[in-house]
Amino acid sequence: MSATNLIEANDLVKTYISRKGLFGTPTHVRAVDGVTLSVAPATTLGIVGESGSGKSTTGRLLLGLEEPSEGQVQFDGRPMPKLKSNAWRQLRSRMQLVFQDPLAALDRRIPIGTQVAEPLDIHAVGSEKERKDRVETLLQSVGLRRDQASSYPHELSGGQRQRVVIARAIATNPDLLVCDEPVSALDVSIQAQVINLLRDLQETRGIAMAFISHDLKVVRNISDRVAVMYLGRIVEEAPSEDIFRRPLHPYTQALVSSVPVPGTALKDRIILQGEPPNPAARPSGCAFHPRCAVAMERCRVEIPAFVSVEAGRKAACHLVPATSET
Ligand code: SF4
Prior knowledge:
By secondary structure, the protein is α/β, with parallel strands linked by helices.
């Protein structure tokens, strides 16, 4: 593990068993298939890809909410403890999850202040009075009023509810936030506010973030580095600026070209053909070949290795030559 990374995942594989009907033959589906990534403190790794790319499963593996079938996650230099073990429970205060639907994440019957206090209660942080003060300060730090602690989720807007979820996630001063589509359910104007909030919190608290989204516009605004996933694998990983200015992998090129840029003609955009394949029926060779406009015969038979292609940049494509460093 590099001394500079807070979290590292090495060759993660997550396999599920899928069965058609009660007596159908079981099929092993590799939802995550050899993912290696890392996040340094106070930086954000954006993880993008279409639905079924394995990005959410990767997020859950990073938090130890799922156990990998193969590979390992290291948090702060130590192997991730087993789910629900004492060591894992203790570590939970240092790593939190923010997910898409704040209404589903909150209990409608309980005032939001009580819900923000939950992690403080679980980890027995301070006295009751200190916890109450801390909750009100947390609400303030995410742009809500102190007196809103007594409000119920239905009394707040969608954006305010997501702020409550974020306040709860940062209550224990975590080192890592895994944000899984945290703004997908919000209006575009509110999305920008929540992204700004996450960025401010990262700056003031030094939190590392894995930011999972299907929306490249959102990822661009918050990420230092971006990992592009396709069918359980990372196909390109690079500094955010490089990904958006000069994508190398044909899949990244198609995703980036779908983000509207003022002054760019529609005809210059690459239209991604077809739907992502079913992970239970992975195409041979490069899994992207049935949709790739520049696929060659070799792509149908040979899986491209995920290798260094430039300093600080990796890709998995037969058309992108490797550097000598891998
Ligand atoms: Fe396209 Fe072949 Fe590269 Fe896969 S390996 S992205 S099919 S060119």
